[in-house]
Sequence to fold (488 residues):
Amino acid sequence: MNGDQIAEVDGGRPVVFRGATLVTMDDAGVIDGGDVLVIGDTIAEVGRGLAVPDDAVEVDASGGILMPGMVDTHRHMWQTALRGYGADWTLTQYFVFYYLNWGKIFRPEDVHAGNVLSAIEAVDAGVTTTLDWSHGLRTVEHGDAALDALRSSPGRFVLAYGNIFAGPWEWTATPEFRAFVERFGASDDMLGLQLAFDVTGDPEFPERAAFEAARDLGLRVTTHAGVWGATNDQSIALMWDNGFMTPDVTYVHAATLSEDSYQRIAASGGTASVSTESEQSAGQGYPPTWELRRHGIPVSLSMDTSVWWSADLFSAMRATLSADRSREHLEAHVRGETVVHNRLRAEDVVRWATIGGATALGLDAVTGSLTPGKKADLVLIKNEESPAMYPLLHPYGSVVYQAGRADVHTVLVNGRVAKHDHRLTGVDLAAAKAAVGRTVDYARTTMGEEAWREGMTPELPPAERIPNPYTYTDYDGGEDRHRAARED
Ligand SMILES: [Zn+2]
Fold:
């Protein structure tokens, strides 16, 4: 597609992708040498050798994999403004930084800047739908800024409205928030609204009012559940006892929970959002997919926050498959056994990253698979310059273990071209970067140099080395050779 054709496709001209390995993620499975015809915002046909309208723009997708756009069910997009700043944090350091010390300095324009860059980053990586777990909305002006950023960015979004600086029973009840919901209007395919808050386990269950607000307003709830040291089985029990565990709830992380809590989630039809890289690094608990699938709890994937990680779901799929298999091996070895079948397949994590995410957001009729009638959210993975993209033998394996965001050739969101020939289209990346640059300057100035530096490089107490009973002199040549080698 050239520039004119991209504009015409955006204007509704049909486009056909020819000759790809189609990873449909529906009953059609994998189709080699397949075509996908998009008319307007919709997938019109999927198959081989499609007859298409005369004016269809043709994209040569041969040698590539065409898959549904990926879905991230939990990302704190506003935190993208400090990308990578917390690379060495634990969860405690994250809480201290954002919840206690510095989260409150973020202005509406800072939330806006983070969201815009995060949205662009997502489509660049082939993520076409993102739930923005937006818990920095200290005022409704912050909420408007978050919303404005999502409305003006490529991608399908759900704004999960949250505010860590007040109790959810407080902010959900304010007239300003209710007016915001009124202004937002009805959720649609492109932009939805949910409530985002956590249940601390306080036996008084103050979160009741927030759940009631969600029910009254007809909004889904997303909640960090099963987070070591923060939310646990007590939170689940309170939700259960008070009748707030429903299919409209997504449990983020869902690690460090008991068997009983998993049974309740499964029985109530809830879904999970697993952020494997986050759980592995920050310490919410072992990535729980190995438990979730034993209970039949639907899984979706997420990246959590770019203050550590990124919006790249290839990374999530890879980490999740590895963590799940790693746990299976570990459990077996503890029993003195050997795993002879990898129960979790590459196909499973691709499913979680696509239709699994769509299901968790209630958008499975809209996106998440290459199915005629669904909205055209497509990702073409094709990179003729990459040795890792050839040969394509196991398409799911190539998606999970070989591909990366640099291999994302073309992205369509709702039939519009967001990326083509490895280049973003229709976004002003320079402006997005400049806005984030202003936020970084502001945060750094407000915090002061010392706090800025300490925040980024948390203090590390000295580590104690385990005493080693062996002396490495006991081999042929002994002490002399050892010394000679050192003096070389
Ligand atoms: Zn989170």
Q: What stands out?
A: The first helix runs from residue 3 to 10. Residues 74, 76, 133, 224, 252, 304 surround zinc ion (CB under 6 Å). The first strand starts at residue 15 and ends at 23. The chain has 18 helices and 17 strands.
